[in-house]
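Subject: Protein record for review, amino acid sequence with backbone structure tokens
Concerning: The relation between a protein's sequence and the shape of its backbone.
How to read it: Take the token row as a discrete description of the fold.
Enclosed: The protein record, placed directly beneath this head.
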Amino acid sequence: MSNFIKIYSLFVHHKDDERFDDIKVKTLVMTGEGDVGSTPEMSNNLSKKIKNSTVKIIPVGKHLCSIECSDDVNSKLKDHILNA
């Protein structure tokens, strides 16, 4: 739990000084459509900052969509890897 708090604190208090231009690889940004902690809007905004990125929103997925919608998530990951 202490690691989660440290990581979430970084997420909440970041200074928006990330160097997204340094990301040169094809990137997948994915979240669940019902995720309130990592919203589709946040994913779309992140994708706009990362060149050569794609957004996939998992329908009916929430914050744990990698578990709740594992078939859909795995399919999107497989497609991304095969087309990278």
Remarks:
- The radius of gyration is 14 Å.
- Residues 18-82 form one domain.
- The chain has one domain: 18-82.
- The first helix runs from residue 2 to 13.
